[in-house]
Design a protein that fits this description.
The structure is a homodimer of 428-residue chains. The first copy, chain A, is an alpha/beta fold and 428 residues long. Helix content of chain A is 36%, strand content 27%. The radius of gyration of chain A is 24 Å and the shape is elongated.
Chain lengths: 428, 428
């Protein structure tokens, strides 16, 4: 029987999950695929972690050179995260003729052009299903199944931490700060949560997914990014009342005016399939010119779901002799002439805190009108405590981002308006 | 640039869709995949249909031998449907060294063991993503992404016609017969609708999907099958009242007691993601020991969605040099010793029409108790017209199919019971 040796770089959450899956299913993979996949060695400084997983001491290596020179190792699994030393290790493995499976979205998003070049040169596989949306089969669906399509739109809930926080805020009415603290206590959010809550993680993934979907390099630096730390329970409650859920969406559109890629919180109609993707579940909703709408849904993170994606890649790599690479020109920057939409179009939810005096609505309305913004829906609460500010809620028709920013400035300067409470995009 | 020639057998709905996609995206595929995919010829008796699609007369062939002997043809797309002559044509193509892409679930389900043998022998690809759930990437997800998992359960809404009918019955309160007629008028149901409404189509697909999921041959003859023609609006209304939707589900489970495969209508909790899969949308909900839950959702049928799956397979075939086959022993019958569960376990919805007299509930309850059936929920309507029969609704806890059938017999023999209105399984 064909033997395939695996080295795992890093025994964190995902590395541990991957080891456990490979170890406990080895006989099944032999039976189903006529291939014996064994973990030959691991790279991990914390010996006790490796031993706790049942890995014998002689398999715990200290440096990448030993792994690269081990002829029993065919596939290197990189699950360390971060750019360095992960990138150096992956390049070393590829240059030593080992195929690589990675879950590292930051490294892959920033350096896939360099990694793929090395993989091609050395005729190695480079697999990255686990970089995006855990165990949900979105990379391979884009790479294989949906290639017949011109994909026009992609909308995803692709960060588990923020979806957990927004779900809890919605179901428990707790504030962002409270829920974030609870999430950190439970291990769902990092001590420094900014990669998740400020949308960087989602932007890395969107860069990988949209490059595949639109067949052109989309560097993450081209992605408009806005996190969820400004979302208040008040906004979530208005969303519910108006028939929406609030989600951190990763959006990619490819239309006549160019490529429009962004990560930001958004109101989405409660009837949209993405609106009921809750807790740490993730989903990607893809629209193509042939397939129409497809949604892929599941656990976006976690030891075993992400391990499932990694092991799927390992088995694929172990049972195939030719590998495929990006079906687009994978360069460092976007191809010259690629048009990115900056002044994108969206509907908007705008919440103002206005003073309880006559004429404010007229002034706000005339600003909207001057900026070319047409209002679709408006809510103004009754005054309960005389003299207190009153929330005024607008949902606009589709308009341009820049028009809304201009209106925001002008409204901020109005004497009758205490503050612009929040501006959140509305998608359908 | 590499050239790949395609022949399409049959220009029905799916064949026409496939042609249109290939024709309109040819330049994109050249750019993205460095391969020029052209339709070299078609097999279609209705010349006018081919010409209407823009296919020149010299490309319209009359027999499979001409296609097999055409050296420009690399891939044969079989979209004729039915077992014969499709199977003979596919075998001829494989034996002539052509790879095959098919959407024909009946042929593939019944004869994949024979077709795969020919494909292996001739080193050809045999692709069948389009046999199940239209453009939704379920076959490749099972073949590649989820191979790291022991899949324990699979539940799907995998027939568009029945889901359309049940959705309309639910939203419009119309009867099965009325909605079926409308569906036939709109072309959503065939003149002879039995393949869809009696669950054969879903059983063919479940056979293909569950064999892949459970790594063992599951012939469709082993699948318990029950259609939707017995579903009444009354049952759908009770379902809604009790928090359920009624769907035709294809269910596969692989547990300690064996393999449990069935297609039947079922109550499913409104909060389950499958419950909101409506109209002609389809979805498959898969549970694995690593990935946890994954749902794949989209258009389960139609010219372009199914064409999308076919063209995805064509591009894969055109850009790969080695092909994969079933990761299980693909024989005609189930492997000796495979255990199939006949007396499966489920919760049940039972609707009785009882006469308005004392003691009926006591008698029914004592039958349930004797049969080991425990009731979880019960509804009895107030008598509105004295002397008329009254519906009595039970939702049971999980119990055995055979116990329910035994209870049904005994209840039918009770003098106070006019009829057993319906028995529908309840899944969670």
């Amino acid at each position: 029987m064909k033997k395939v040796g695996v080295a795992i770089l890093g025994l964190g959450v995902v590395g541990g999950g991957t080891y456990r899956i490979l170890d406990s299913h080895r006989e099944e993979y032999k039976r189903n695929h006529k291939v014996d996949i064994s973990v030959e060695c691991v790279l991990e400084r914390r010996k006790e972690r490796a031993i706790e997983l049942g890995i014998s001491e002689d398999k715990i290596y200290n440096n990448i050179a030993e792994i690269c020179s081990n002829p029993e190792v065919d596939i290197v699994v990189e699950v360390m995260g971060g750019v360095e030393p992960a990138k150096t290790f992956v390049l070393a493995a590829l240059n030593a003729g080992k195929s690589v499976v990675t879950s590292n979205k930051e490294m892959f998003c920033k350096y896939s052009y360099e990694l793929e070049k090395a993989a091609r040169k050395n005729h190695c596989g480079l697999f990255y299903e686990a970089t995006c949306v855990g165990g949900v089969p979105v990379i391979r669906s884009l790479l294989d199944n949906l290639q017949g399509n011109r994909i026009t739109s992609m909308m995803g809930i692709i960060n588990g931490t923020t979806n957990y926080i927004l779900t809890k805020m919605s179901t428990e009415g707790a504030s962002y700060d409270e829920v974030l603290k609870e999430a950190q206590r439970l291990g769902y959010a990092e001590a420094n949560p900014s990669a998740d809550v400020e949308g960087y993680d989602a932007a890395y993934k969107l860069s990988i997914l949209s490059s595949l979907a639109f067949h052109t390099k989309i560097p993450y630096t081209k992605i408009y990014r806005e996190g969820i730390s400004g979302i208040s329970v008040e906004d979530i409650n208005y969303a519910k009342r108006l028939g929406y859920a609030v989600k951190l969406l990763a959006i990619g559109k490819n239309g006549d005016s160019g490529i429009d890629v962004r990560v930001h919180p958004a109101f989405i109609k409660q009837t949209h399939p993405l609106a009921s993707v809750n807790d740490s579940y993730n989903a990607v909703y893809i629209t193509g010119d042939s397939v129409e709408d497809v949604m892929l849904y599941g656990r976006g993170a976690g030891a075993l779901p992400t391990g499932s994606a990694i092991v799927g890649d390992i088995i694929y790599c172990a049972t195939h002799t030719s590998f495929q690479y990006s079906p687009f020109d994978n360069t460092e920057n976007a191809a010259p002439g690629t048009k990115f939409v900056e002044n994108f179009e969206s509907a908007y939810y705008i919440r103002l805190n206005v003073m309880d005096r006559a004429g404010v609505l007229a002034k706000v309305s005339s600003i909207f009108s001057r900026c070319g913004i047409s209002v679709a829906q408006m809510v103004q609460e009754e005054v309960t405590v005389p003299g207190e500010n009153i929330p005024q809620i607008f949902i606009t028709h589709k308009t341009k981002e820049h028009s809304v920013r201009k209106a925001e400035q002008e409204i901020n300067a109005l004497t009758g308006v205490a503050s612009v409470g929040s501006i959140i995009r509305v998608v359908n």
